[in-house]
Write a structure and sequence with these properties.
CATH class of the largest domain: Alpha Beta
CATH topology of the largest domain: Rossmann fold
Radius of gyration: 23 Å
Largest sheet: 9 strands, mixed
Bound molecules: adenosine-5'-diphosphate
Strand order of the largest sheet: 3-4-5-2-1-6-7-11-12
Distance between the termini: 26 Å
Number of domains: 2
Structural class: alpha/beta
CATH architecture of the largest domain: 3-Layer(aba) Sandwich
Helix content: 25-40%
Shape: globular
Strand content: 15-25%
């Protein structure tokens, strides 16, 4: 089976969030199952030189984008047995950020056409193109209305995975003809039209043969008005072709026994090392070095999705408790300012590191006792999975993948691997943090919880198997999806 992953970010080359983790780890796992997976992504200027030096040019050609003819180089790099193709166009991708430019519609419109053209130019005709999030949303659509008719392309199937429905790639109407070179007739409510604009993600949901999202709970949530981001009706229409497959985490990357970022490795059988990592973090952040005080950590994009409104709302109450808190994150300026300011109010209890730092993230997961993730919505969430792996007990809101992976501790039955609350409510969150902290003081209970969390299996093996099965079923279908 041959699968081409089209994605806008991928570990270890470039990462802004969980999408990159998935794109970096799932192909490796599929490869182990015997699937020939290759990954194609933009060659961003921000990718480190050490990787750029290893890339070898495969071919170059021109991509027609409306009236433009744009250069497209394809470069190749092999890592962990997986082939990665990089789409090279410096005008579009040699910038200091990945997203958020006025011409994102043109940049990713180019990327989508480049992927479809590259198939023929590199001679890798996949059975399935697996696209991820809006940045690749026009691939299934363009495939169905244009490329399917091309020699050698006819039998390809398309899968589209929704990692976050909130970001849809909504572009002005002009993008349709001027950039994508598509006919006016596709500006229709059953096709690409979305409240007077065009919508990349909608294109994929309309056209892909299969749609998946990254947890069973989120799969159901996005068919409701609250979580559906105005695409819920369309997702209900595609119900039969919509699956929820939980993300995993990469065992090579996140493992307290193998992690070179940590000052001391450790395992569920020997937690001494975890205490050393905690002390090191307390020292680094100039907090009192004291193992009796629970250390609560957040590692997150600083956006409303992640429940930071709740944290802000009860911050003073929370910090009046017997705990220490560290936030690692970057994002909305208002949250960045808030956390920076709070450092001055609680110098011995609260620290913020505003920025993106992979190495520090690993050390924080290892040093933390509690990991807070009170998301408003959470398609899957990797933070809570990594936290559990490192023995930091997650405190989450019961939504999306958080609901599927964290089970609230029940002292009567002695079940559960974390703490959770149902409603998006600041005091419910505060109460849950307090409940978790109270168990921290009971060494026996805490030890058991930490060990249980660390022994959970959230590796990719099971999910990769489900994706493989989905590809096989799709390939064996005699007809592809018609819309
Ligand atoms: P999302 O993809 O919505 O941002 P996830 O929980 O799925 O959320 O994935 C977030 C990933 O990004 C995790 O691997 C987390 O550790 C990492 N991360 C988030 N913020 C930072 C940061 N400021 N520095 C380092 N890593 C971060």
């Amino acid at each position: 089976m041959k699968v081409l992953f089209a994605v806008s970010e991928c570990v270890p080359f470039i990462k802004t969030g969980g999408l990159a983790d998935v794109a970096g780890s799932l192909p490796k796992e599929l490869k182990r199952l015997g699937t020939d997976v290759r990954v194609i992504l933009p060659k961003y200027g921000m990718i480190s030189d050490s990787y750029k030096k290893q890339m070898k040019k495969v071919t170059s050609f021109y991509v027609q984008l409306g009236w433009r003819m744009q250069y497209c180089g394809i470069e190749e790099l092999k890592l962990d047995d997986v082939t990665f193709y990089f789409v090279d166009n410096e005008y579009y991708f040699k910038r200091d950020q990945l997203y958020g430019f006025y011409d994102d519609g043109e940049r990713f419109g180019f990327f989508n056409r480049a992927v479809l053209e590259a198939i023929e130019k590199i001679g890798f005709y996949p059975d399935v193109i697996h696209c991820h999030d809006w940045h690749t949303g026009m691939i299934p659509f363009l495939y169905k209305v244009e490329y399917q008719k091309r020699n050698g392309y006819g039998l390809i199937r398309t899968v589209f995975t929704i990692h976050n429905l909130q970001f849809q790639g909504i572009m002005p109407k002009e993008t349709l003809q001027d950039i994508l070179g598509l006919d006016e007739r596709y500006f229709h409510i059953d096709q690409l039209e979305f409240y007077g604009n065009i919508n990349f993600m909608k294109g994929a949901i309309v056209a892909a043969d299969k749609i998946t999202t990254v947890s069973p709970t989120y799969r159901n949530e996005i068919q409701t008005e609250y979580y559906g981001e105005k695409l819920n009706h369309l997702l209900i229409k595609r119900d039969e072709d919509l699956d929820g497959i939980l993300n995993g985490i990469d065992d090579d990357m996140y493992h307290p026994l193998k992690d070179s970022s940590l000052v001391q490795s450790y395992s569920a059988d020997d937690l001494q090392g975890k205490a050393i990592n905690k002390a090191e973090i307390q020292r680094k952040f100039a907090l009192p070095v004291n193992s009796d005080i629970p250390l609560l950590v957040m590692i997150t994009r600083l956006t409303r999705q992640k429940g930071l409104d709740l944290v802000q709302c009860v911050f003073d109450e929370l910090l009046s408790d017997h705990l220490q808190m560290i936030v690692l994150g970057s994002g909305d300026a208002s949250f960045e300012h808030f956390f920076r300011e709070m450092e001055h109010f609680y110098p011995t209890k609260f620290k913020a590191y505003i920025g993106f730092d992979e190495d520090l993230a690993h050390r924080l997961y290892a040093g933390a006792d509690l990991f807070l993730m009170p998301s408003q919505f959470e398609p899957c969430g990797l933070g809570q999975l990594i936290a559990m792996k490192y023995g930091a007990i997650p405190i989450v809101r019961e939504t999306g993948g958080l609901n599927d992976t964290v089970h609230s501790f029940n002292e009567a039955t002695n079940e559960g691997n974390g703490f959770s609350f149902t409603h998006f409510n600041a005091h419910d969150m505060l109460h849950t943090i307090r409940r978790a902290s109270s168990f921290y003081q009971n060494e026996d209970v805490w030890d058991l919880l930490v060990k249980r969390a660390m022994n959970m299996d959230y590796s990719w093996a099971q999910s990769a198997f489900k994706y493989n099965r989905l590809y096989s079923e799709l390939i064996s279908r005699s007809e592809s999806h018609v819309f």
